[in-house]
Amino acid sequence: MKGLIFVKKLISGLLALTIAASGSAMVAGAADWRNVDSDTSSITLKWNAVSGADGYRVYRWDKKDDKYVTVKTVSGQKTFLKITGLKAGSTYKYVVKPYHYTSTSHTVFGSKSSAVIASTKPAATKVNSKTRSSAKAVRVFWNKYGFTNNVDKQSNYKYGGYHVFVYDNKADEWVRVACVSGGRTNVRVTGFKKNTKYSFKVKPFTMSGYNGDKYENEGDDSNVYTIKTKNYWCNC
């Protein structure tokens, strides 16, 4: 009798493996990322459909626990997910897995996608009164933005910085004159005329990346700060 029970369990186990294997074969490969959109409080992930998938499960890297955790399961043919309630200027890491229901209602997952680095846009910073000038240069100072990096160390991902703009009166447009990464909150810009007024603004930015490409997510404009260059040279 014990031998018969053992044979029945063995057959049952092999049958389950066969079903799982046949179900897994119906999920053809991993999803590729199609696009990533964001604002200051949400990220929308978009991926390409996988043949045979009955839905998808999205995971986010948990820096504290050092592992991926489930964000949400998306059923049916839907191939996007909007994640809300996020902090402005924050960087996250996501993967997605397709899944398939077998004939016995088992859920079989396909391969996980490559990781996508997705960031919310930062809110505005402020150009402050430390900003000073000489005859041909201006050193622009702004308030530090509180970027939050939730990505694992292995990704070695730069999470953002600042774009500095000066207003070109002749062209009637803002021109980017510097890109500052990391924690720096000032930059020296040269090539100005003496005894002349110039207006500056700063935009913080975060980074997103997927499928081998990287993208900048600019935040809101800072205040406009106008300063007059001096008649004499100094080490500003």
**What Rg, in angstroms, do the CA atoms define?**
26 Å
Fill in the CATH topology of the largest domain.
Immunoglobulin-like
Domains (count):
2
CATH-assigned homologous superfamily of the largest domain: Immunoglobulins
**Structural category:** mainly beta
Shape estimate: elongated
What count of helical segments does DSSP give? 1
Give a quick account of the main beta sheet: strands, pairing sense, barrel closure. 6 strands, mixed
Roughly what is the average pLDDT, rounded to an integer? 87
Task: Determine the fraction of residues in helical runs and give it as a percent range.
Answer: 10-25%
CATH architecture of the largest domain: Sandwich
Q: In total, how many beta strands?
A: 17
How would you classify the quaternary structure?
A: single chain
The helix/strand order is HEEEEEEEEEEEEEEEEE
| Terminal CA distance | 92 Å
> Which stretches are poorly predicted, pLDDT < 50 over at least 5 residues?
1-25
Strand content: over 45%
Topology:
Blueprint: H1 2-25, E1 33-38, E2 43-47, E3 55-62, E4 67-75, E5 80-83, E6 90-101, E7 107-109, E8 116-119, E9 132-133, E10 137-141, E11 148-149, E12 160-168, E13 173-181, E14 186-190, E15 197-210, E16 213-218, E17 225-228
Parallel strand pairs: 6-11
Antiparallel strand pairs: 1-2, 2-5, 3-4, 3-6, 6-7, 6-8, 9-10, 10-14, 12-13, 12-15, 15-16, 15-17
Features:
2 domains; five-stranded antiparallel beta sheet; Immunoglobulin-like; 236 residues; mainly beta; six-stranded mixed beta sheet; elongated; 17 strands
